[in-house]
Amino acid sequence: MITLDIRHNLGSFALDLSFDAPRGVTVLFGRSGAGKTTVTNAVAGLLRPDSGQIRLGERVLFDSNAGIDLPTHKRRIGYIFQDARLFPHLSVAKNLTYGQRFARGKKPAASFDRVVDLLGIGHLLDRAPINLSGGEKQRVAIGRALLSSPELILADEPLAALDDARKAEILPYLERLRDEIEIPILYVTHSVAEVARLATTVVVLQNGRCLKSGPADQVLGDPEVLPTGVRAAGALIQAQVTKHHPDGLSELSAGGIALFLPGHDQPLGQSLRLRIAAHDVILSRSRPEGLSALNIIPGRVTALHSGGGPGMMVSLQSAAGPVLARITRRSAEALGLAVGVECHAIVKSVSVAREDVGIGAPSAQTPSG
Amino acid sequence: MQWLGPEEWQAVALSLKVSFWATLLSLPLGLLTAVALARWSFRGKALLNGLVHLPLILPPVVTGYILLVGFGPNGPVGALLQPFGIVLAFRWTGAALAAAVMGFPLMVRAMRLSVEAVDPKLEQAAATLGASRFWVFATVTLPLILPGILAGMVLCFAKAMGEFGATITFVANIPGQTRTLPSAIYAFLQVPGGESAAIRLVIVSICIAMSALILSEWLSQRIAKRVRGTP
């Protein structure tokens, strides 16, 4: 677990941040220029904050009061950079083992063979970095960080430089990392899709300050935060696969509510994380009849938020979890929406997109209703 | 080489010896200076940069005279070294010092460029993987700047082979002691009937220069390939 409390002047604004990152993936989320990379560089010791304290478990990495500033090479942090930063003069195998010689006597998080297997890079070992694709480079960089026996993995927008196909290639490996390796991961991104898929904990950063932090589903479902901006807002829902229908639809259960998705090859009982974008949700006071949409979630309004424009955000609490709906203010008035009102969230056909599903699947948007 | 007289052969061998030692002994200081100029910020950096490049701009005779004043038997440094049995003036060691001083700016320039071309982000990555500053330099920086080091050594060697003005001012033109190739060619041209010997030495000079250039080109291509990672 990493505990951080730092202040640093960034010129146009000051970073003043304090958060705890427990086990799993803690996503540091915010727009470009919110101070995210400053935080990771401070944790790695590549930047010295003006004041504050950074602790990794029991070890103090930085403490301005006590005058402690551990040099980067003694911090034992596996840093995955946006640009893979592989050593061009070393083969893939030698890149992977580079950190091992400095970590003698330390317990490795995973053996060489396991890491190579986990990342699917066995066929690349003899190659030179220049001959790798962007996605392959990034996988090797992840492996190299893992094999240095780190106590924390830092990932600074590791997918930002890759195209969508390469992102889809790497994301499953990051998920395996989260689920199979017991090292906390501090992950920086401004991508909603990455937060939705990877985050255990989310820390939303805005102008150097923590806007909100907590478990992923709570933070992303909070309309007051809207870290993703109004257009990209959406809620996270956990669901289990309960049935595969012969017509190609899979049935999932989210807190007892049935949801239908285009066919998935996930085994029955598999838990999936679904993202329901707020702009893909229609609200209805009565249970809709004669509608093509299959996914209807009953709930109760918990909050109404209106900004300056004609739109507003409605939060619902349902048996499946929180649901966000973005509708016009006019509709809200017409429906007579208020806190405590029962209504139904109709999730439009394309909203439960396969690319938003938690386990790696080809990105395709097929209607489910 | 039968067609070279003993006196001519002596000049060739002396030039090679002087240039070899001038290059080798400049290497550590040259590398340190190149890294300092490329990476470190310190007071007097501009002054150091000026001092290093001064021999490139000054007339070689001036450099030779300064060396004579400083490192001669009565000079401050010369007097300091004498008790240790190190005599530079009018010895081949002095010729090596003169060659080193003249070749130094060329060596530092080539190395500095290669150090500046190394992406500090790679060195940061090495540090996050647990490498201390020494190991970062030994395992990342040094392999990546090898082509530049080689280029700097070749330039320094070439300059040392051709050095004339500072050498003849500092250590004169003593056969077998300080009469290097250029000095010998100059001496042969001063005596009647010396042209044929001078021409033979000119041919030898051209051969040595060509071989050095071809060798360095070949080596740097090999190293550059290895550094870039292409097989």
UniProtKB/TrEMBL annotation, chain B:
<comment type="similarity">
    <text>Belongs to the binding-protein-dependent transport system permease family. CysTW subfamily.</text>
</comment>
<keyword id="KW-0813">Transport</keyword>
<keyword id="KW-1003">Cell membrane</keyword>
<keyword id="KW-1133">Transmembrane helix</keyword>
<dbReference type="Pfam" id="PF00528">
    <property type="entry name" value="BPD_transp_1"/>
</dbReference>
<dbReference type="GO" id="GO:0005886">
    <property type="term" value="C:plasma membrane"/>
</dbReference>
<keyword id="KW-0472">Membrane</keyword>
<dbReference type="InterPro" id="IPR000515">
    <property type="entry name" value="MetI-like"/>
</dbReference>
<comment type="function">
    <text>Part of the binding-protein-dependent transport system for molybdenum; probably responsible for the translocation of the substrate across the membrane.</text>
</comment>
<feature type="transmembrane region" description="Helical">
    <location>
        <begin position="84"/>
        <end position="104"/>
    </location>
</feature>
<keyword id="KW-0997">Cell inner membrane</keyword>
<keyword id="KW-0500">Molybdenum</keyword>
<dbReference type="GO" id="GO:0015098">
    <property type="term" value="F:molybdate ion transmembrane transporter activity"/>
</dbReference>
<dbReference type="InterPro" id="IPR035906">
    <property type="entry name" value="MetI-like_sf"/>
</dbReference>
<feature type="transmembrane region" description="Helical">
    <location>
        <begin position="134"/>
        <end position="155"/>
    </location>
</feature>
<feature type="transmembrane region" description="Helical">
    <location>
        <begin position="50"/>
        <end position="72"/>
    </location>
</feature>
<keyword id="KW-0812">Transmembrane</keyword>
<dbReference type="InterPro" id="IPR011867">
    <property type="entry name" value="ModB_ABC"/>
</dbReference>
<protein>
    <recommendedName>
        <fullName>Molybdenum transport system permease</fullName>
    </recommendedName>
</protein>
<feature type="transmembrane region" description="Helical">
    <location>
        <begin position="20"/>
        <end position="38"/>
    </location>
</feature>
<feature type="transmembrane region" description="Helical">
    <location>
        <begin position="197"/>
        <end position="219"/>
    </location>
</feature>
<feature type="domain" description="ABC transmembrane type-1">
    <location>
        <begin position="12"/>
        <end position="214"/>
    </location>
</feature>
